[in-house]
Amino acid sequence: MPFSSLPHQSDGWEIVASEIHFQNGHLAVATEEVRTPSRHQAQHWTVVERKAAVVIAPLTTDGKLVLIRQERIPIRAEIWEVPAGQIDDGSVNDAAAIAAVALRELREETGYALGAGGALVPLGHFFSSPGFTDEHGYCFLARGVEATPDGHAHEEAEAISDCRPFSAPEVARMVAENEIRDANTLSICAKLAARGFFNLQT
């Protein structure tokens, strides 16, 4: 612990004590006493430290967003979302390695890859739920993707039942009607819209 250095600021932040209650290869649960820049008295907080992830927005050459439909055990539901995956090799401070993970996850989960003239565009990172976890995702636009002849290569633990492209009006409706409701997809849609890559205004 920690799994990555990105969210852990040093100036004015001091970990007075930390006790790990549970840890495996993906996350750790700890109780921490932390002094912040505005509070001299240490605050007790339960923190979940988690591996960083990549989150990919695959846009086809005709401007559609490729989504997967996947079962999510914690919420007991199957939902539409963008492809994503954890960074397992510890290369969270290497931009080229993170980009390589994004391209691999794109191909494995969707069966799509960058076509001729396509590009992988970094869009920054976001925190999924900073009130209790340092989990963060590196966002990428995969512009100009095409379906590959070999198709997807899902991992055994993944339960992906569908994958197809959606137009901007379709995605806007899905967001408005709460069909899309995970932080990864909502966050990257906001980044795409803010940068002018995907017009969600209906």
How would you characterize the overall build of this protein?
This protein has 202 residues and is an alpha+beta fold. It folds into 2 domains: 37 residues, no CATH class; 142 residues, Alpha-Beta Complex (Nucleoside Triphosphate Pyrophosphohydrolase). It is built from 3 helices and 10 strands. It has a 4-stranded mixed sheet with strand order 7-4-9-8, sandwiched between helices. Strand 1 and strand 2 form a beta hairpin. The chain starts with 13 loop residues before the first strand and ends in an 8-residue tail after the last helix.
Q: Which key features would you list for this structure?
A:
10 strands; 18% helix; 202 residues; alpha+beta; four-stranded mixed sheet; 45% strand; three-stranded antiparallel sheet; Nucleoside Triphosphate Pyrophosphohydrolase
Blueprint (SSEs and pairs):
Blueprint: E1 14-23, E2 27-36, E3 39-50, E4 53-60, E5 65-72, E6 77-81, E7 84-86, H1 95-110, E8 112-127, E9 136-147, E10 160-166, H2 168-176, H3 183-194
Parallel strand pairs: 4-9
Antiparallel strand pairs: 1-2, 2-3, 4-7, 5-6, 5-10, 8-9
Proportion of beta-strand residues: over 45%
Shape summary? elongated
Overall helicity = 10-25%
Number of continuous helical runs:
3
Low-confidence stretches: none
Q: In a few lines, what is going on in this structure?
A:
It contains three helices and ten strands, in the order βββββββαβββαα. With 202 residues, it is an alpha+beta fold.
